[in-house]
């Protein structure tokens, strides 16, 4: 009798297991979707209130109360991290196709620069908040822009290194060049957001000329002539991988 009872009890638990898992899965998907909605609301609140926005501003933009918001974010620092990760997503969604486009060198450079400047033009307050750390409750040690610069510079180093080796050139210069280019573009982007003394197309064109002039000059020093308007024989591609250990902006969880 006891053995039969144990089997019946065990069977009952097994039957409830998949249902329980399904409920947990639905709840997790719901939380992910709601958190993503609140991040988008925070982006809208940023446009209106700037980097000094409060949780009440985000709640108002989302059409909920602050307690509801705090069910999905531990605190303002958690929201900052989520905004930073969303900013990284927005940038990489535009930048990766541009960097890996099967275009001639100059159009490819121009397309990558235009991707960056388009993102910061569309979300200026988000970029200001992240680049200048203008957030009262920013988590200690969190610098999304510095992390993005590292990821992009590392990817660019691999890309330039591949091309330099393809032309039998010393690829040792690829890393300092990459960090120099990324730093120049970021500093120019911050200046442009503040001054707006020229159009986006103009600043992109000026930077395109500067970067190509440097690449062309170095190549010619090594006896290599590259047609700026002709696709190269091999289209080297890179992947922009997020910084290890970064939390998922949709769930707030670490991988």
Short key terms for the protein model shown above:
255 residues; mainly alpha; Arc Repressor Mutant, subunit A; Tetracycline Repressor, domain 2; 9 helices; 0% strand; elongated; disordered N terminus
Could you give a short description of this structure?
This protein is an all-alpha fold and 255 residues long.
Order of helices and strands: HHHHHHHHH
The CATH H-level superfamily of the largest domain is Tetracycline Repressor, domain 2
Mean pLDDT across residues:
84
The CATH architecture assignment of the largest domain turns out to be: Orthogonal Bundle
Structural class: mainly alpha
Extract low-pLDDT stretches.
1-14
Shape: elongated
The number of domains is: 2
Report Rg. Answer: 24 Å
First-to-last CA distance: 47 Å
Largest sheet: none
Q: Approximately what portion of the residues adopt beta-strand conformation?
A: under 5%
Query: Number of helical runs?
Result: 9
Helix content: 55-70%
How is the CATH topology of the largest domain named?
Tetracycline Repressor, domain 2
Secondary structure tally: strands: 0
| Text of the CATH class of the largest domain | Mainly Alpha
Can you tell me about this structure?
The chain is mainly alpha-helical. The protein folds into 2 domains: 28-73, Arc Repressor Mutant, subunit A (Orthogonal Bundle); 85-235, Tetracycline Repressor, domain 2 (Orthogonal Bundle), CATH 1.10.357.10. Helices cover 70% and strands 0% of the residues. The protein is built from 9 helices and no strands. Helix 4 runs antiparallel to helix 5 (105-122). The radius of gyration is 24 Å and the shape is elongated. Residues 1-14 have low confidence and may be disordered.
């Amino acid at each position: 009798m006891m053995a039969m009872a144990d089997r019946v009890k065990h069977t009952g638990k097994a039957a409830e297991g998949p249902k329980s898992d399904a409920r947990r899965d639905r709840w997790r998907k719901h939380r992910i979707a709601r958190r993503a909605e609140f991040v988008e609301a925070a982006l809208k609140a940023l446009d209106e209130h700037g980097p000094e926005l409060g949780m009440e501003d985000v709640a108002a933009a989302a059409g909920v109360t602050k307690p509801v918001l705090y069910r999905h974010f531990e605190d303002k620092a958690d929201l900052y991290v989520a905004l930073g990760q969303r900013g990284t997503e927005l940038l990489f969604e535009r930048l990766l196709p541009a960097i890996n486009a099967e275009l001639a060198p100059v159009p490819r450079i121009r397309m990558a620069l235009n991707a960056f400047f388009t993102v910061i033009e569309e979300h200026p307050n988000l970029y200001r908040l992240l680049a200048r750390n203008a957030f009262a409750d920013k988590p200690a040690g969190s610098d999304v822009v510095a992390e993005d610069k590292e990821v992009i510079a590392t990817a660019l180093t691999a890309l330039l290194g591949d091309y330099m080796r393809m032309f039998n050139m010393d690829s040792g210069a690829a890393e300092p060049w990459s960090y120099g280019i990324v730093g120049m573009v970021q500093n120019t982007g911050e200046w442009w957001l503040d001054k707006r003394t020229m159009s986006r197309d103009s600043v992109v064109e000026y930077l395109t000329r500067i970067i190509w002039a440097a690449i062309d000059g170095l190549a010619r020093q090594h006896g290599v002539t590259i047609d700026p308007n002709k696709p190269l024989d091999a289209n080297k591609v890179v992947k922009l991988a997020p910084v290890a250990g970064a939390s998922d902006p949709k769930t707030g969880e670490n991988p």
